Amino acid sequence: MNQFDQNNLWHPYAKIPNTISSHHVISAEGVYLNLDNGKKVIDGMSSWWSVIHGYNNQRLNEAIKTQLDQMSHVMFGGLTHEPAIKLGQKLIEITPKELTKVFFFAYSGSISVELALKMALQYWHQKGEKKQNKICHPFWRLSRRYFWRNECLRSR
Question: Domain boundaries in the chain?
């Protein structure tokens, strides 16, 4: 399995061809990764929820299993479901009382930033403010994202 991985899979931070084999993780618990060679190492690089909650967190595992038994994922466009409604209710509960509407759920930080910018553009568009409907900050120019190409090129 490790030979296939080394010959066929491209990992982040690795060169092609990859001359250094990856560590094969067979399980994880808390901050520890258990490797196929019997070693147990601390994951000092961690990611996603594991950095906050640790690996193999029983509460998270049970919530995921319960959700999978109902549905793994449903697109939110034009559809809704109980977990989204409960999350919205919880957010209203813990945020300032003025925030009672319009929660827009996104699945990552970069998507949430892009959505916030698009919402700002939509706000100014609906207000009829032509000068405020383009964002051409150097950050967007450097990133070369489709957003930059569509919006900033039009303004030149």
Answer: 2-51, 109-155
